[in-house]
Amino acid sequence: MDTLKIDENPLDLAEKILKDIKSSEGMGLLKCIQCGMCTSMCPGARNSDYNPRDMIERVLEGDETIIEDENIWNCFYCYTCHSICPVGNSACEVNQILRQMAINKGIANDKVRPFTGFIDVMMDLGLGKIPSIFHDDLTRDIGEEWKEKNLHLDEIREELGLKPLSMPKESIKEIRSLLKLTKLDKRVEKINE
Amino acid sequence: MRNIPDKNVMLFKSCLVSGEYPGVESSTKYVFDKVGIEYIADDRQSCCTGLGHYSDVYDQFSTTVIGGRNFNIAKKTNHAKIAMMCSTCYAIHKKVAKLLNNNEKVREDVNNVYEEANLSEMKYEEGSIDSSNNIFHVIELLYNKKDEIGKNIKIDLSKFRIATHHACHYCKIQYEDAIKGFRDPTILDDLIKSCGVETVGWYDHKRATCGAGFRQRFVNRDLSMKVTSDKLLSLNEEKIDILVHMCPNCQMQFDRYQPFIGKELNIDFNIFHLNIVQLIAFLMGADPYKVMGIQTHTVPIEPLIEKVK
């Protein structure tokens, strides 16, 4: 007869996820009945090997290798699964938390490094802008007109009766000091290592 | 049903509106003025973090600290009814409000950050911003004024086939707040109806994401384009002339990449992409370049305007 291991709790991972700051109150992770509705409507699952039902199953089995699974990076964060789950689970939120776990373990720096530009712009201007690292790709796919639009944005805004994009210096200073206190700058440094 | 405000509104500036489709902001202001919505916009307001947040580079705590700062601006200007032009700004702030109200530990930690930064005036008081009653999408304010909108319409679009794209971050995250359904969302269809035009209503893929997928558009382009093209093909089959949007990220995905996808698939997609506020402003007689801002679009809107003349 197999011996039952009673000192291991397979729900450790699920409970850790439920306690995460990103987890919605009352999320029905432990109620998942593996119906697969999430996977049936998922744009990532339709076009890649990502499978939210399988991801939840592995979480409930306490299989921590899911954190290293490449496929979790194919979720679109569209929340379709979240909006249709019959037991109020959110594969989308679980996915976001697993990705954060991967980042915290230092195994996902390559995945998120391209996006640190969003934080640079926030620290510099208090605004969000598509990071310049992507501009060549976008210009190639969309056309030169897109680049032209960026160059003339302030003039176009003026034509529309809108002020140039800028925040008061004092506000930018506030943003910068707040995000340093949340240690976001340290997080970015680690990602860029 | 939530109480939809028409005064004390802070129009929340969106980075993708500001940088990609500034005409959405000028059109919103134009329509707000026409239908009598009292609002301010405040330069001190920052980005919501959304694009970076959903690309996983922000942690939820940093996003919450930034959100609380924006709430403070809305409260101290006595314009605590916050209206979003972008569905991700909308979802981000609802999440922040829920965390600040329901999670004592997070609220304390956030307030400690404000104190340490010598910004004690920003300290968040439990319940001062309610996810359902303080945070809105611009289209909800307009839905509440649909009779007023109807009275101001000067152009008839009934010869066109119009479909709607309801943004995921409006109707799939805090779906309990979506005022006209989330399984078959109709708020855009109803708004267009108030302009005297019927949309095609339900179509295959109506509920599907635009395909931007945050990181996917930038680092997983083929996957992103496949999802967008599935929806475009479905719209093409329905012979849609105009797709109406409510989120600058979705609008960007379809407007910017439609020609690219068309070339890849060797299909001539002839679908115009307009935000609902651009469409309403247009039907009210607004100037295409001084209000609608069609000069920043990739799929030209001029042929549509020509057809209407």
UniProtKB/TrEMBL annotation, chain A:
GO MF annotations, alphabetized: 4 iron, 4 sulfur cluster binding; CoB--CoM heterodisulfide reductase activity; metal ion binding
Species assigned in the record: Candidatus Methanobinarius endosymbioticus
Gene Ontology CC, one term: plasma membrane
UniProt similarity note: Belongs to the HdrC family.
Gene giving rise to this polypeptide: hdrC_3
EC number: 1.8.98.1
Residue span, 4Fe-4S ferredoxin-type domain: 31-51
UniProt-listed Pfam families: Fer4_8
Protein's recorded name: CoB--CoM heterodisulfide reductase iron-sulfur subunit C
Keyword terms, alphabetized: 4Fe-4S, Iron, Iron-sulfur, Metal-binding, Oxidoreductase
UniProt enzyme class: oxidoreductase
Automatic annotation (TrEMBL), chain B:
Pfam family, one: CCG
TM region(s), chain numbering: none
Residue ranges constituting the Cysteine-rich domain according to the UniProt record: 9-91, 163-255
Matching InterPro entries: Cys_rich_dom (IPR004017), HdrB (IPR053571), HdrB/HdrD_reductase (IPR051278)
A Gene Ontology molecular function term of the record: CoB--CoM heterodisulfide reductase activity
EC assignment: 1.8.98.1
Keywords for the protein's UniProt record, in alphabetical order: Oxidoreductase
Top-level taxon of the source organism: Archaea
PANTHER family with a match to the protein in the record: COB--COM HETERODISULFIDE REDUCTASE SUBUNIT B 1
Annotated protein name in UniProt: CoB--CoM heterodisulfide reductase subunit B
Species of provenance: Candidatus Methanobinarius endosymbioticus
Organism lineage string: Archaea, Methanobacteriati, Methanobacteriota, Methanomada group, Methanobacteria
Gene name tied to this protein: hdrB_3
